[in-house]
Structures are given as C-alpha cells and as structure tokens.
Write a structure and sequence with these properties.
45% of the residues lie in helices and 18% in strands. The protein is built from three helices and five strands; from the N terminus they run E-E-H-E-E-H-E-H.
C-alpha cells in the first residue's frame, strides 16, 4: 500500500490537520490491511513537514504496521522531521 502524502496538501503543518489525515487514512486506506503489509509513505511534492503533523500520522502508522518504507525524502524538512521522530518516538522508523 502506497500512501501519497501530497493528497493531504504540500504544507503538512498542524497537529489537528495531522490527526484528521490519520483518521482519513485509517478509515479509507489502511482499514483491514494485514499488520505485516508493506506501507510505503511517499513524500513527493511535500514542501513542508512538521514534527507535529508527522507525529499524528507517521508515528501512528508505524505503531499500526510493522513494515514501513519512506519514499522521496530528499526535502530538508522531511529529513529533519523524520530524524526527530526517530529520536523521540521510540519507534524504529
């Protein structure tokens, strides 16, 4: 399953927006998927990603699924946010 974050906008900033995005994903994209299924999170066309938004989405997806792969992570805000999540979430993402 590939999740294209650009569907949620190119500036992924606030915690409430992240919470809403996660609820939409869990209701429509990932509902009923096996916990071992590969989840590809695609950051293409994302201009800004903040730790608040990512904590609401990526951390929760990583708790729900065991096999996460990140695609198109060259953006500096994406790289910095993923680094923060790795350091503080306790998850191996």
């Amino acid at each position: 399953m590939r999740i294209e974050l650009k569907k949620f906008g190119d500036m992924l900033i606030s915690r409430p927006d992240g919470r809403e995005a996660y609820l939409a994903m869990s209701a429509y994209l990932t509902k009923g998927l096996n916990k071992n299924e590969l989840i590809e999170i695609d950051f293409s066309d994302v201009k800004i990603l903040t730790p608040s938004w990512a904590d609401e989405v990526i951390t929760k997806i990583a708790k729900d699924f065991k096999n996460i792969k990140f695609l198109n992570t060259k953006n500096s805000t994406v790289q910095a946010t993923l680094k923060i999540l790795r350091e503080y979430s306790g998850l191996k993402i």
